[in-house]
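Before anything else, study the sequence and fold tokens given here and see whether the fold suits the sequence. Record follows:
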Amino acid sequence: MGIIVQKFGGSSVADNTKLFNVCKHIIREYNSKKQVVVVVSAQGKTTDQLIREALEIDKNPSQREIDMLISTGEQVTISKLAICLNKLGYQAISLTGWQVPIKTNDVANNADIEHININRILNELEQNKIVIVAGFQGINKYNDITTLGRGGSDTTAVGLAAALKAERCDIYTDVDGVYNRDPRTNKNAYKFENISYDEMLKLANDGAQVLHYKCIELAARFNVPIYVKSSFEKNPIGTFVGK
């Protein structure tokens, strides 16, 4: 039984209706006899709002405390999604980055993953559970919560896919693939059916926001196949990113 890692961004999980929509994508893979690990971001603009609130208190807050604060957004999402799946009759368990654990370096707000211990996840999968992991976060050698910076949930998903030797990593967004321009503002934008890691990295460095460069570099290093799909389409085809 192969492992599939799915990642859903903030706009895909912004409210309860969208959470139940996400459940459909998860259940479809689970019912196809796959072991499913899900990574999610904070709902909507939660992270931005938490940062704004912190800056209202102190214009120069401790970056350790910022990591502690903004990591809570993903914890809310994972628990809500697990509740949704359990209500639908599917066993699911939510795990924060430190519960996995995902070990990182000590760089506040922009940490890099150094090691992922997959034993807890594998144990839960063996019990036929859907495992939901908080994206964007980990824990350093001092047992402090860290966050991975922009695109951190994508990096979490690819990192887990590499560690678990997953068949692929599906990144669900509010667009249906990778385009040469933003399809929301340019009607002549072209969607790639397939794109290499190097080409995707160039697009990311040129400002494309579908995948962050850290996530692409990690995927290339461990040869993790990525599919970029729309979370709002029933059977999205999307764009394949690989060799």
The mean pLDDT is 95. The first helix runs from residue 16 to 31.
